[in-house]
From TrEMBL:
Entry superkingdom: Eukaryota
A cellular-component GO term for this protein: plasma membrane
Pfam families per UniProt: 7tm_4
The protein's name in its UniProt record: Olfactory receptor
Annotated InterPro entries: GPCR_Rhodpsn (IPR000276), GPCR_Rhodpsn_7TM (IPR017452), Olfact_rcpt (IPR000725), Olfactory_Receptors (IPR050427)
């Protein structure tokens, strides 16, 4: 669990760093500009890191399924080699997804207006600027982004239904522990996937609400991931209680 959490935290840090610095700069600048090369680089890196996060969440769901449904075989099934292979597969899948998005966009002819109604370079706002028919490319984007997000989301939900089905006859204490373990993961999945599905599962159109929904999967969900996992994890709760309960005693000794 902590191995995947480390990878998720690293991907979150890099993912938000692709958007937040430029966003903060634009908020302070009177004229908000970005070069074509930087725009394409941001598009590629954003989808690459976003794909890694989606696939890591899927790997974490599999990890929780094995831990709860097959606890006696967990150490054998989820060996370090298996975890490393899962992370490599996540990075490979994310690279293929991002490269496809990049290649669909970079060769488009842009000869008209050069303003995008967004705070980062994404596929749909760029398709809107292209001076050619982008209907077919829009369908490919739906397949590459929307269907990947939808299928991954369905796999995640199916894994949790299987977990709930497995623990239905377990004692109340075991059910509470299993639900606590999965609760944080489900929260992260909903915060990340629902806004992403709203944007990428529909035809290639842009709406004013897109920027608000994009905030959830580019900034809010990655920012709250460490907090959500920390507060939902019993070991972290106990560690924080020990720190805060021990702190007044140490302060009292220093004062004396």
């Amino acid at each position: 669990m902590y191995f995947f959490l480390n990878c998720l935290s690293l991907s979150d840090l890099c993912y938000t760093s692709t958007v937040v610095p430029k966003l903060m700069t634009d908020l302070l600048a009177e004229r908000k500009t970005i070069s074509f090369n930087n725009c394409m680089a941001q598009l590629f890196i954003l989808h690459f890191l976003g794909g890694i996060e989606i696939f890591i969440l899927t790997g974490m769901a599999y990890d929780r399924y094995v831990a709860i449904c097959k606890p006696l075989h967990y150490v054998i099934i989820m060996s370090r080699q298996k975890c490393n292979r899962i992370i490599v597969a996540c990075c490979t899948g994310a690279f293929v997804h991002s490269a496809s998005q990049f290649l669909l966009t970079v060769f488009l002819p842009f000869c008209g207006p050069n303003e995008i109604d967004h705070y980062f370079c994404d596929v749909y706002p760029l398709l809107k600027l292209a001076c050619t028919d982008t209907y077919g490319i829009g369908l490919l984007v739906i397949v590459n982004s929307g269907l990947i997000a939808l299928v991954t989301f369905e796999i995640l939900m199916a894994s949790y239904f299987m977990i709930l089905y497995t623990i239905r006859a377990s004692p109340a204490e075991s059910r509470a522990k299993a639900l606590s373990t999965c609760g944080s993961h489900i929260t992260v999945v909903v915060l990340f996937f629902v806004p992403a599905l709203f944007i990428y599962i529909r035809p290639a159109t842009t709406l004013p609400e897109d920027k608000v929904f994009a905030l959830f999967y580019t900034i809010i969900a990655p920012m709250f991931n460490p907090l959500i996992y920390t507060l939902r994890n019993m070991e972290m709760k106990n560690a924080l209680r020990r720190v805060w309960c021990h702190k007044p005693f140490l302060i009292g000794r220093q004062v004396i």
